[in-house]
Amino acid sequence: MGRLHKKGQAGAAKAYVTRTAAIKKLQCSLADFRRLCILKGIFPREPRHRKRANKGSSAPTSFYYAKDIAYLAHEPVLAKLREHKAFAKKLARALGRGEWSSAKSLEEQKPSYRLDHIIKERYPTFVDAVRDIDDALCMIFLFASLPSTAKVSPSLVENCARLAAEWQLYVMHTHSLRKAFLSIKGVYYQAEVFDQTVTWLVPYQFTQTIPSDVDVRVMLTFLELYQTMLGFVFFKLYTDAGLVYPPPLDTKKDESGAGVGAFSLQEAKPAAEVLTVKKVKEVEVEGKRISAKDVRQTIKSIAGQTAGDNDIEMQDGTDNAADEADEEFVAHPSHSNPEETAALPTLKTLASLPQSKTSQLFSPYTFWLSRETSRPIFEFLVRSFGGRIGWPATSGSNSPFEEDDESITHVIIDRPLVVKENETEEERERRRRRKYVQPQWVVDCINAGRILLEEPYAQGNTLPPHLSPFEGRADAYDPTLGVSVDDAEMDDEEEEAASEAEAEDEEAAPEKAALMAAAAAKDAAALRAAELEAEAAGVDFGVFEKEARKARKKVHVAEDTEEPTEEDMNKMMMSNKQRKLYERMKHGEKKRSSERQNLEQKRKQLEKEKKRQAKS
Amino acid sequence: MDKPLTAEELDLIRRLQEGENPDAGYDPYEPTVEWFTGKGKEEIMPLSAAPEPKRRWVPSKWEKQKVMKIVRAIRQGRIVPNKPKTASDKPQFYNVWGEEPANQPPPPPAPKPRLPTHAESYNPPEEYLPTEEEKKQWEETEKEDREREFLPQKYSALRLVPAYNQFIQERFQRQLDLYLAPRVTRTKLQIDPNSLIPKLPSPSSLKPFPVYKSLEVAHDKGRTRSVSISPDGTWAASGDENGVVNMWEVVVGKVVKSWKFKGKVGAVEWCPRTDVCFLVVATEEQLHFLIPPNLPTSILVATQAVLAPSQLPPAPATPSPVKWQSTSAAASTSDSAILIISLPSNSGLPRQVAWHRRGDYLATVASGEGQGGVWIHQISRRHSQAPFKKVKGTVQSVLFHPTKPHFFVATQRYVRIYNLAEQKLLKTLQPGIRWISSMDVHPLGDHLIVGGYDRKLCWFDLELSDKPYKILRYHSRAIRSLHFHPTYPLFASSSDDGSIQVFHARVYNDLMTDPLIVPLKILRGHQVREGLGVLQIKWVPKQSWLVSAGADGQVAVWCS
C-alpha cells in the first residue's frame, strides 16, 4: 500500500498563496506589500484551478507563487521597511514629547534603502533593462511636466526633468530616433537603442493635474524604481558612448529656459587631463570665460556650416578616426575558386548601411521655429536627425542663431497665412528664399525616411492626413491605397441605375414587370421567355441585357453564400477543441475585415460626396 | 381586566428603555464635594521624619561613568558628533552590469502596450472619424467595454490640439496592469485557420451518392412517420399519421396500392427475405402483415404458407398475452392483413419494427409501459416473448446484430448490447447523449452510429471502446433517423432542421486503420412543420438512392 496523501499538502495548494496569506507571512502592511511587489516586479498568477489553490474556496482572491513570497521574505528592502516603521514610531514619540533635539537626530538617522540589487536582479543583462524602459520613460516625461504639489515634491519633478533631458540628449547624440507620431494623446517617439525599439509617449505642453481617482502613492513607488533604473541605464549608455554621466547642468541657462541646451555633453577623459586642458585653454575675455569650444563654435557659425551642434560634430570626428583605426578585413581569395572573393561585412561596411543615411536626414538644412510651435518637440526631432535649429527668445534662450540668419532654409510655422502690409525689401527677399512648412512636414519626412515635397505642407494649406508609422498588420486597412477599381465601377453602375430609376419612374408598368422577370429568371429558358416578354412590352434590348447581367451577378453572389462548400462540410469533422480555436480565429479575422470594410465604405461615401461637390 | 399604567410608571419604563437611571430624582452631575484636597487642605507635614539621603544631593557615580565612556569614545574618534549626512560610500550610479550576470533566467518581461494606429493621429484620414451613431454608441457604452479609449478627432493644425484629459489615468491603468494583473506567457498561434480543417478526399471522387430529388410521393394529410423499401429495391411503402399506407414503385413514384388503418401508423417495414414478400405495419397495439398485390404465384403461395400455415405450430406452454390471428390463405386478399398480432393492451403505438436479417424474428418497441415495451416475435413458431423483465429507462430503439446473435437496446442515455443466445449483457456503450433518438449498425457489424435529440451523432467502434470514436455535431436540430447503406460505404442522417446529411463511411478490415468519414452532401427539400423535419430515411438496397419521409407529408426519392 502506498503512502496516504493528505489533501492540501502538495500541488497547487502548496504552490500558490493568497494575498492575505502572503501579507501575514511577511508580517507587513498591505501598503508595504504593494511597494515590495512593485519594486521587485512580483505579480499575481492565475492558477489553473482556483478552487484547488484556495482550499476548495472559490472566493475571488488574487494568488501569488509561494516561492515568490518566500523570496520576498529575504528582501533587504523589507528589513529596511521594518526599520522605517520603528523609526516612524520613535519619531512620533519624540515629537509628541516635544523632544526636538532627539527628533532631529533621529531624522538624521532615518533609514533609507537602495534599489541597485533589485535592478540587477530584475534585469540581469543590460539589454533586458533597455527592453523595459518604455514605461519608465513615459512616466518620467509625464512627471517632468507636472506642477509640484504637496504629494509631488519639486525635487522629484526636477529629477524627472533632468532624466528626460539626459535621455533626449543621448538620443540626439547617437541619432537613434527612428519614428515619431503626432497623436491626440501626445507625441510618440520610437528610438532604436542596443537593437531594442524603445517607444515612449510625451504629452503636449499643457499643465496636467493629477485627478482624484488616481492613487499617487502607487505612481510614486513606480517612479522611485524608474528613476533608479533609468539612472543606471543612462550611466551605461553614456559611458559606452564615451560621455560623462551625469552631464553637467548650467543653472543659469536652465533658469532662462534653455531646456535640453542647459546640459552639456562632455567626453570622458582621465580626470587629470581634463583639468590641465581646462587650465590651458580657458582665456578670460572681457570678464567672460571663453573655452576652446566656444571659439570653435564661433568659427563654425562664421563658416556657415550646416551640420549639427558642437558636441555632435566633435563626436563625429572621433568616430571617423576610430573607423580608420579599425582593422580592415583583408579578403584572401580561396584556392579552388580564385575569382570569388569573400565579401564579408566588416564593422565599417555595417556602419555605412543606409540606416545611417536616414538618421542624418536633416543635416543639410537649417530650421527656424516660429513662435507658436512647440520648441521641445521640434528641437528634439530636428537635432536627432542632424539638422540645425533656432528659435525666438520667447521660446527660450540659447538659440544658436537669430531669425535673420542667412543659412536658414526652412521655417516651421503653424499659423494661417496673413498678408503683411508693411514688409521691407529685405524681409520679402528672406521670405522668398526660405520655405515655410507646417510642423507635420517634419514628422512625415522622418516617417517616410526622405525629404518630402514642401508644397502640400506649405503655410496655410490644408494638410494631408498624418498617418501612424506603427500600423503593422498586413491585412489592416491602408488609407494610402486608392479605392479598388471594380468596386468603383460597380458603384458607378449602381449609381447610374439609381439615377435612371429616378428619371424613369413614371414609365409604363409592363416594362418594369418584364425587367423584373429578367431579374428573376434563373435558367436559360426562363431568360428567353423574359426577353420575349420584354420585347413585347417595348423595352430596349440594351436595357434588358444590363438588367439581366445584374440579376445574374446577384444570383451568383447569393449562390456563393448559400451552397456549402467542401471545406464547410469538412469543418464538421473537426474536434470540439479545434472547432473552438478555429471559430475564435475566424471571429478575429471577421472583426478586422468588418472594420476594414466599414472604413472603405466611409471612404467611398466621402469620395462620392467630393465628386458630387466638384460637379455642382 | 385592564389596569392603566400611571404616568410615573410610564416614565419609569421609558427610563429603563433608554438605559437611564430609573430613579427620576437622581442627578448624575452633582457638584463634587472636596473632602481631602483643594484649597486650604494641603498637607504640610511630611509623612516620615527620616533625614534626606545623601544620594539626593551627591552627583551620581554611575552617571559619571556612562558620560565618561561617551567622552572617551569621542576622544578616540569612535563616535563622530554631527556626522555629515552622506547617503553611502557607493556613488549613486555606477555600472551595475559590470560583472557577470547571474545565470538565472530573467523574469518574463511585461507586455508592451499597444502601438498607436492611424485613428489616434491628430489629423487622421477622414474615414476614421466616427459618425454620429458611432459617437453616441461610444458614449453610451461603459468605459471598460469600449473598443477604443478615445474618439478619433481631426484638427486642422497642430497648435489646435488640446491636452489629452485621460493621460494620467491611462498611465495609472498601465501601472495597475503591471503589478496587479496576472501574467501568462502564451505562444501565439501563427497558423492559417484553414489549416485546422481536416484534409479529406473530395466528394466528387467518392461518387455515387444521392445529389438531387428525383420524385416525390405526397400523403394528403398527416406526417409520414415511416418509410420502408422492399429488399429487391423496387417497391416502397410509406405510412402516415392518418393511418394511410401507400405502396409505390421507387423508380416511378406511382401509388399502386393504398391501405387505410384506424389510428396512426407507427412503423412500416418490409420483410428482408427474398423468397417471400410481405410487409408489416404497426398501428395502435397491433401489427398487420400485408401481402402486396400482383405477386408471382410462387412467391404468393410461399408467403401465405409462412404467414398463415395450414398447420399451426403447437401453442407454447405458458399462455402469452400476445394474440396471433391469421385469416386462411384462401380467404386472404391484398386488401386486408393476412396476419394480425395483437400486443397486450396499454402497450401503445409501436414506434419501431426491427427485423432480424433472416426474416424470422422481428422486434417491436412500443411506447407503452411494461417490459420496456420490447417484444420479439418469431413468425415460424407464431410466438412472442418479452426479452426483458425490467429495463432501466425507456427503450428508444432496438436492433439485431447483422452477423452475431447480439441485440442492441438503446435507452434514453445508454446503448446496451445483449447476447441473445447466452442471455446476458455484453457491453454498455456510453454515447454521452442526453436523449438517444436513433441508431444503426454497420452491415459488417463492427461499428454503430447513435443519434440523439441533442444534435449529436456518435460513431462507436465496437472493438475499441465503449466511448465514442468520434462525435459529430453538425445538424442544427435534433437528429431523427440514421441509416447505413447495406452495400455502398454510405450513411445518412436526417434531422428536424429539414436537411439530410450524406456521409461516406469507409470501414477497413484491419484493426489498425481508423474508419474514414467524409461528409458528402447536404440534401435540402423537406419543409419543417411544427418543429419537425425529416422523420425517417432509408437507402434503396441496390442503388445509391435515398428515400426520405418528412413531417410535411412528402416522401422523396434522392438519386445520384
TrEMBL record, chain A:
Assembly and interaction partners: Component of the NOP7 complex, composed of ERB1, NOP7 and YTM1. Within the NOP7 complex ERB1 appears to interact directly with NOP7 and YTM1. The NOP7 complex also associates with the 66S pre-ribosome.
Sample GO molecular function, one term: ribonucleoprotein complex binding
All residue ranges annotated as the BRCT domain in the record: 357-459
Database matches in Pfam families: BRCT, Pescadillo_N
Superkingdom to which the source organism belongs: Eukaryota
Record region (Disordered): 489-511, 550-616
Entry keyword set: Nucleus, Ribosome biogenesis, rRNA processing
Protein name: Pescadillo homolog
Family annotation (Gene3D superfamilies): BRCT domain
Bias (Basic and acidic residues): 580-610
Purpose: Component of the NOP7 complex, which is required for maturation of the 25S and 5.8S ribosomal RNAs and formation of the 60S ribosome.
Keyword Nucleus annotated: yes
From TrEMBL, chain B:
Bilayer-crossing regions: none
Record keyword Lipoprotein present: no
Composition bias, Pro residues: 103-114
Tagged with keyword Magnesium: no
Regions of compositional bias (Basic and acidic residues) in chain numbering: 132-149
Xref: InterPro entries: BOP1/Erb1, BOP1_N_dom, WD40/YVTN_repeat-like_dom_sf, WD40_repeat_CS, WD40_repeat_dom_sf, WD40_rpt
Single GO MF descriptor: ribonucleoprotein complex binding
Places the protein is found: Nucleus, Nucleolus; Nucleus, Nucleoplasm
One term under GO cellular component: PeBoW complex
Classification via Pfam families: BOP1NT, WD40
Keywords (A to Z) from UniProt: Nucleus, Repeat, Ribosome biogenesis, rRNA processing, WD repeat
Function statement: Component of the NOP7 complex, which is required for maturation of the 25S and 5.8S ribosomal RNAs and formation of the 60S ribosome.
Quaternary assembly: Component of the NOP7 complex, composed of ERB1, NOP7 and YTM1. Within the NOP7 complex ERB1 appears to interact directly with NOP7 and YTM1. The NOP7 complex also associates with the 66S pre-ribosome.
Protein name: Ribosome biogenesis protein ERB1
Species in which this protein is naturally found: Phanerochaete sordida
